[in-house]
Amino acid sequence: MEEYTGYVMPSEPSTPGLRKLLEYWQTKCSGGRLPTRADIDPADLSFLLPNLFLIDVNMGEEARNRFRFRLFGTELARVHGRDRTGKTFHETLEEEPADGSVTWATRLVNERIPLFVGGRVRYLRKEWLQFENAMLPLQNDGGEVSMILGATIYTYPSAKGGVSK
Q: pLDDT, tens digit, for every residue of 27-70?
């Protein structure tokens, strides 16, 4: 397990919803080929729709503009206080977390592997809130990573001092 600027980077997700998403994505991989967007059926992901996001990848752009949200689930918008659909990391986050997000997404594109991260939601000044995130590469017909399928699960503190998902 890696650690990056206070976040934990596990080798696999721990929350059931993200594990199920990873398993679904793995079933769409075949013969060393990553899934395409057309391989993904949103109806199959109804268990996680409010937490899902899709990011368009354009590696020809400067780093700040390479990743743009195509879809930003309703639970994500609620926690963030706004819908990020159509926006880049730098249009919606402060500089440091936006730069970290670009670095993380660039690694996913270059290595063509799923990545996972978890920790406290410091980037929204909600340190009391925990999150776990999965980002999974999708390729275009030419074999390049052109989209990221992902989801974020938040863990809320309970009234009894524990946490609830």
A: 999 888 999 999 999 999 999 999 999 999 999 999 888 999 99
Classified as helix, coil or strand, 94 is coil
pTM exceeds cut of 0.85 = yes
Per DSSP (E only), the strands in 11-108 are 52-57, 67-72
Contact present, 52 and 37 (Cβ < 8 Å): no
How many residues belong to the chain? 165
Phi, psi of 67 (to 5 degrees): -125, 120
Identify residue 120 by its one-letter amino acid code: R
Q: Which domains does the chain have, with CATH numbers?
A: 2-164 (3.30.450.20)
- Side-chain-side CA neighbours of residue 96 (13 Å): 6
* The pLDDT of residue 100: 84
The Cα–Cα gap between 34 and 57 comes to 15
Tokens 């159509």 correspond to what residue? 86
Tell me the three-class secondary structure of 100-152, residue by residue. HHHHHHHHHHHHCCCEEEEEEEHHHCEEEEEEEEEEEEEECCCCCEEEEEEEE
Is residue 18 exposed (0-12), middle (13-18) or buried (19+ Cβ within 10 Å)?
buried
